[in-house]
C-alpha cells in the first residue's frame, strides 16, 4: 500500500519522459495527468509528515512509560525496605495479635476499628506484606501503611 503512490509517481515521470521524447505537443490529457501526479506527490509528503509526527509521539510515550515503570519499581523497593516495625525480620511486622492483646491488662480500652482495618491488622500479624494485603483487600498500599502505622503507634501506648 505504501509503495503504490511511489510507483504511480514514477510511472507518471516515465509517461512525461516518453511524451517529451516523442516531441508530441502537450495535450489536455497529459496536463491532467501531470496535475494528478503533483497532487499525489503532495499527499505522499503529508502522509510522511504525519507518520513522522506519530513516531515521535510513540517514542515519547514509550520513554514516559519506561520512566514510570522504573519509578514504580524504585518506590516498591523503598516500601519493602522501609517497613513499619521490622525488628530485624524481613517484612514481618511486630503487631500484637488478638491473643496478645487479650493477655494484656484490662486497663486498655477496646478500640473502635472498622472491619476492613481490622482485617489489615490481622493479615499483617500473620506475616503478609503490604502489597499482598493491599491487593487482597482492594486498598492502596498507602492506606495499608497508614493503618499499620496508626496501629503500631497505638500499641506502644
Give the helix level as a range of percent: over 70%
Give the strand content.
under 5%
Radius of gyration: 36 Å
Tell me the overall shape: rod-shaped
Description:
Helices cover 73% and strands 0% of the residues. It contains six helices and no strands. The relative contact order is 0.07. The model is unreliable at 84-92 and 105-109 (pLDDT under 50).
Task: Please summarize what this structure is.
The protein has 157 residues and is an all-alpha fold.
Secondary structure topology:
Elements lengths: L3 H18 L6 H55 L15 H6 L11 H11 L4 H8 L3 H16 L1
List keywords for this structure.
157 residues; 6 helices
Amino acid at each position: 500500500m505504501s509503495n503504490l503512490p511511489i510507483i504511480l509517481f514514477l510511472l507518471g515521470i516515465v509517461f512525461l519522459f516518453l511524451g517529451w521524447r516523442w516531441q508530441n505537443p502537450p495535450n489536455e490529457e497529459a496536463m491532467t495527468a501531470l496535475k494528478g501526479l503533483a497532487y499525489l506527490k503532495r499527499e505522499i509528503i503529508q502522509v510522511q509528515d504525519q507518520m513522522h509526527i506519530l513516531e515521535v509521539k510513540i517514542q515519547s510515550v514509550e520513554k514516559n512509560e519506561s520512566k514510570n515503570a522504573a519509578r514504580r519499581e524504585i518506590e516498591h523497593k523503598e516500601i519493602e525496605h522501609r517497613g513499619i516495625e521490622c525488628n530485624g525480620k524481613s517484612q514481618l511486622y511486630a503487631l500484637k495479635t488478638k491473643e496478645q492483646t487479650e493477655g494484656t491488662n484490662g486497663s486498655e480500652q477496646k478500640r473502635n476499628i472498622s472491619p476492613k482495618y481490622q482485617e489489615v491488622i490481622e493479615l499483617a500479624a500473620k506475616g503478609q506484606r503490604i502489597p499482598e494485603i493491599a491487593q487482597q483487600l482492594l486498598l492502596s498500599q498507602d492506606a495499608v501503611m497508614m493503618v499499620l502505622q496508626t496501629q503500631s503507634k497505638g500499641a506502644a501506648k
